[in-house]
Amino acid sequence: MGNPEGSRALEEQRQGPVLRRRDQVQPGTTDQRLLDTEGDSEWVHTDPWRVMRIQSEFVEGFGALAELPSAISVFGSARTKPGTPEYEAGIRIGKALVDAGFAVITGGGPGAMEAANRGAREANGISVGLGIELPFEQGLNQHVDIGVNFRYFFVRKTMFVKYASGFVVLPGGLGTLDELFEALTLVQTGKVTRFPIVLFGTEYWSGLVDWLRTTVVGGGKASEKDLLLFHVTDDVEEAVSLVTKETGL
Question: How far is residue 25's CA from residue 44's CA, in Å, rounded to a whole number?
Fold first, then answer.
C-alpha cells in the first residue's frame, strides 16, 4: 500500500524496468501520473513518447502493406510538371509495372510520383503512396489507392525497401538522391539481396554516373563492381525487363 503521510522519503524507487535512487526518485506513481488530468502536456514531446510514435508508425505501415504482391518503388521529383516527357514516362512506367505483375509504390506526392501512381491506377493495378509530414503541405495525390502518412523519414524508408522488390528512379532532386544512395548502400553492404535499381533518363543521370566512375571509383573510394549495382536506360520496356529479370517474376 502507499506510504502514510509523514513517512520517510523513498531512497529507492522502481518504475517498471527503471530503477531510481536518492535525488532521482520521482513523486507519485506511474498510474497516478497517467490518470491525473491536470498538469502540463510537455510529456508528449519527450523521447520516450516519441519512441511510442515511432513504434506505432512501424505497426501501421506493416499492417497496411503486409499483403501487397511484389512491388516496385518508383522515385522522382515532386516538381515534374504534368504533360512533360518525364511525367509521361512516369505514367508509362506505372502501367508497364502493373502489366508485369507488380504493385507500384511511390512517395505519394505530386510530379513524377503522381505520374507513376496514375499509370498504375489506369492499368487497374495497386497504387500505393507513402507520404511524409513536411513543413509545407503536400498530401497524397488522387491516384493513390493505399496511402500511409509518416512523421519519420527513416520509418518511411524502411517501408520503401521492405515491401519493394526493386527501385525505378526517375529524374529528381535531393529526396530522390537520398533514396537512391540509401538503396545502393544497402545492396553494396549486403543488407538486401536481389534488389535491382534502374535509373530512368540517361541524359539526366549521365553526369552523376560519370562522377561516380571517374571521381569516386577512380579515386579509390568505391570499387569498379559497385557500378554494376544499377542500370541506366531511356526505354520503359527495358526498365521493366531489368526489374523483372532480377526479381524472378
Answer: 21
Distance between CA atoms of residues 187 and 230, nearest Å: 10
Give the DSSP letter of residue 213. Answer: I
Q: Tell me the C-alpha distance between 209 and 197, whole Å.
A: 13
**Pick from 59, 87, 57, 58: which is nearest to 74 by CA?**
87
Q: Where are the alpha helices (DSSP H) in 75-212?
A: 85-99, 112-122, 153-162, 174-188, 202-211
81 three-state secondary structure: coil
C-alpha–C-alpha distance, residues 203 and 72, integer Å:
23
Per-residue pLDDT of the chain (249 residues; tens, 9 = 90+): 444 444 445 567 776 677 777 778 877 766 666 666 666 677 677 878 888 989 999 999 999 999 999 999 999 999 999 999 999 999 999 999 999 999 999 999 999 999 999 999 999 999 999 999 887 757 899 999 999 999 899 999 999 999 999 999 999 999 999 999 999 999 999 999 889 999 999 999 999 999 999 999 999 999 999 999 999 999 999 999 999 987 766
**CA pair distance 56, 180, nearest whole angstrom:** 26
User: Can you count the helices (H) and strands (E) in the chain?
Assistant: 8, 9
Residue identified by cell 505501415 is 61
Closest CA relative to residue 102, chosen from 74, 75, 60, 64: 74
Find out whether 135 and 43 touch, Cβ atoms under 8 Å.
Answer: no
Is this model's pTM higher than 0.85 or not?
no
Distance between CA atoms of residues 50 and 56, nearest Å: 10
